[in-house]
């Protein structure tokens, strides 16, 4: 009971901060940032990177960045706990019997899929995973209530949360839900389901969840079932997208079909508590008391709100075991220029456009020319009947584009071709690239990850990762 009361007290503090003076959040963030830097000095990797810097006073942008290739190349030097080694970590995740167990008896271990290049093994303290659930169950609550009265109501009538992902494993979502906090079970009952389960709809109907959390691809399939009348969710309060890019047309469709708030979370395995979806407006709020999100250009210079960056730099203030400080992630992100209707004063990400290295290739005069996937995304902004897409390339200059259209609609191929040609001309690529669009009802996810790979390139310079 004491642990439950302690959780309620922390939850109230966490939720109140969303409407606090941003200066108060900044002071709290600064305190946690300096604590993280002190802990990072126990990491040989960071000792080398921070040599000569005054860590008690230096500004954030004075610190060098870290990328995943450097981190994995020096994995044994990355952690502050010298018992954490790559050999031990690989052996642990290599044994499926370890799913649900703590690495070295105290850490949550997970790995990325490697869908954007090299896979990364990540080590999280148990407290960081508890923080993730605390933030999602408070700031990710459609009502926004976490007081004693709301806690008593949920204690008498707990929420029913359905997590629809893949089966058990060390992938980030699967690994974290193995350690769902015991204190939360009094207020939120949890059922984990697999999106590959042939009886998924029957199980959801039987459970009748009040909250459904899933990948964007699975949410679209559930929306189809709901529209067809096969999925019954009479008590549904909100839905949550996790771990996969949800386009704005897709979010609007979910909002229309389910008729409840749609929380679109953006995070990475390196900082899973990075944001909480906004219940009223597009995008998501940065949990700026526990993380730092820098939206920057290709040279790591900050870009202003309203301008799409080339990548982001992440700092996770909750992980002092495997510090993530100014960690480069090639996501194209745009910060909002205005507030939203939900009342949160935390910074808001207006949109996430996926990975910056999602490129295709063409030939010009015997040399390779990069074709940014943003060209396709920009053209699709004019295609209001679409909600998802996938582009594939097997030879230079030719891209096959599958566009998922809303039920009952047809893709206006001539209009889309015009917009694609317009974008190619804008970037000086007309005549070098041919994009062949076609309409489909659904984009199939990668069976390994359960997520859609939107850019698949099998050609290009030899050094380009496939």
Description:
By secondary structure, this protein is of the alpha/beta class. The protein has two domains: 2-355, 3-Layer(aba) Sandwich (Rossmann fold), CATH 3.40.50.12780; 359-457, GMP Synthetase, Chain A, domain 3. The protein is built from 14 helices and 20 strands. It has helices spanning 2-16, 22-40, 44-49, 68-73, 75-78, 86-93, 126-138, 148-156, 172-177, 200-207, 216-227, 248-258, 374-380, 413-426; strands at 107-111, 121-125, 159-165, 188-194, 211-214, 238-241, 262-264, 275-277, 284-286, 291-296, 311-316, 327-329, 331-335, 348-355, 359-364, 367-372, 386-395, 398-405, 434-440, 455-457. The strands form six sheets. The protein has a five-stranded parallel sheet with strand order 4-3-5-6-7. Helix 9 (172-177) links the parallel strand 3 (159-165) and strand 4 (188-194). Helix 11 runs parallel beside helix 12 (248-258). The radius of gyration is 22 Å and the shape is globular. The termini are far apart. The model has no long low-confidence stretch (mean pLDDT 89).
């Amino acid at each position: 009971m004491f642990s439950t009361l302690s959780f309620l007290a922390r939850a109230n503090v966490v939720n109140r901060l969303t409407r606090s003076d941003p200066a108060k959040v900044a002071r709290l963030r600064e305190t946690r940032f300096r604590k993280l830097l002190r802990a990072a000095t126990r990491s040989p990797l960071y000792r080398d990177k921070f040599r000569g810097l005054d860590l008690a006073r230096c500004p954030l942008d004075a610190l060098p960045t870290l990328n995943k290739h450097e981190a994995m190349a020096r994995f044994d030097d990355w952690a502050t706990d010298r018992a954490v080694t790559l050999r031990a970590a690989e052996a642990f995740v290599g044994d499926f019997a370890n799913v649900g167990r703590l690495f070295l008896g105290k850490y949550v271990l997970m790995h990325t899929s490697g869908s954007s290049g090299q896979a990364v093994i990540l080590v999280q303290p148990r407290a960081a995973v508890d923080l993730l659930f605390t933030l999602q169950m408070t700031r990710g609550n459609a009502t926004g209530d976490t007081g004693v009265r709301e806690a008593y109501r949920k204690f008498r009538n707990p929420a029913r949360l359905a997590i629809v992902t893949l089966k058990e494993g060390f992938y980030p979502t699967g690994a974290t839900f193995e350690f769902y906090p015991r204190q939360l079970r009094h207020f939120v009952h949890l059922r984990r389901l697999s999106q590959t389960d042939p009886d998924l709809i029957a199980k959801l109907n039987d459970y009748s969840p009040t909250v459904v959390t899933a990948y964007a691809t699975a949410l679209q399939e559930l929306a189809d079932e709901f529209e067809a009348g096969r999925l019954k969710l009479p008590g549904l309060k909100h839905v949550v997208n996790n771990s996969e890019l949800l386009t704005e047309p897709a979010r609007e469709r979910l909002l229309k079909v389910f008729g409840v708030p749609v929380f679109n979370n953006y995070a990475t395995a390196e900082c899973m508590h990075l944001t909480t979806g906004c219940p009223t407006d597009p995008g998501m709020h940065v949990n700026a008391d526990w993380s730092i999100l820098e939206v920057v250009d290709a040279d790591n210079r900050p870009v202003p709100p309203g301008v799409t960056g080339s990548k982001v730099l992440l700092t996770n203030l909750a992980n002092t075991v495997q510090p993530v400080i100014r960690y480069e992630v090639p996501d194209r992100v745009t910060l909002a220029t205005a507030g939203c209707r939900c009342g949160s004063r935390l910074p808001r990400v207006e949109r996430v456009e996926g990975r910056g290295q999602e490129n295709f290739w063409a030939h010009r005069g015997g040399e390779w020319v990069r074709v940014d996937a943003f060209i396709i995304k920009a053209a699709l902004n004019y295609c209001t009947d679409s909600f998802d897409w996938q582009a594939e390339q097997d030879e230079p200059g030719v891209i096959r584009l599958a566009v998922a259209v809303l039920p009952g609609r047809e893709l206006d191929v001539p209009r889309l071709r015009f917009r694609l040609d317009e974008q190619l001309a804008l970037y000086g690529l007309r005549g070098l690239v041919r994009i062949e669009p076609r309409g489909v009802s659904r984009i199939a996810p990668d069976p390994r990850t359960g997520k859609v790979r939107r850019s698949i390139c099998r050609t290009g310079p030899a050094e380009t990762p496939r």
